[in-house]
Amino acid sequence: MEKEKIDRRKIGTAYEQEAVLFLKQKGYRIIARNYYCKQGEIDIIAVDQNYLVFVEVKYRSKKKSTSALEAVTLQKQRHIIRSAQCYLYQNGYPEDTPCRFDVIAIQGDTMQHIVNAFESYFM
C-alpha cells in the first residue's frame, strides 16, 4: 500500500511539472507550488496579468471511469477556496486582490486548461 502511495505521488508531481511548464509557456509567473495549510492544498499558485491564480491539476489515465474534470468536485473546490484564503492572509495580500481558480485536467495524453473554472463568492 505504501509503495502505491509513493508511486501516485511521483506521478502527480510529474504531471504538476508538466502543468507548470505549460503555464510558463502561456506567460504565467509561478510563485508557489504545493502550498499546504490546514484547510487543504493548492497545486500551483501563479500570476497571470493582474490575477493571482490558484491552479488545481488533476490527472486521470484513460482507464479511469471518471474524467479529470469530474474529480474537481464541489467539496474539492471548497477546500481550494479556503486554502486560497489562507494563502492570501498569510502572505499579506489585500482583500481586493483579483483572484481566480483554474483547473488543468490531464486525461491520458490530453491536457485541458480551464480558465476561471469555478468562482468563490467569499473573495
TrEMBL record:
Naturally occurring in which organism (per UniProt): Jutongia hominis
Q: Name the InterPro entries for this protein.
A: Restrct_endonuc-II-like, tRNA_endonuc-like_dom_sf, UPF0102_YraN-like
| Name assigned to this protein | UPF0102 protein H8700_09145
State the source organism's domain of life. Answer: Bacteria
Note the PANTHER family from the entry: UPF0102 PROTEIN YRAN
Family assignment from sequence similarity: Belongs to the UPF0102 family.
CDD domains assigned to the protein according to its UniProt record, in alphabetical order: PoNe_Nuclease (cd20736)
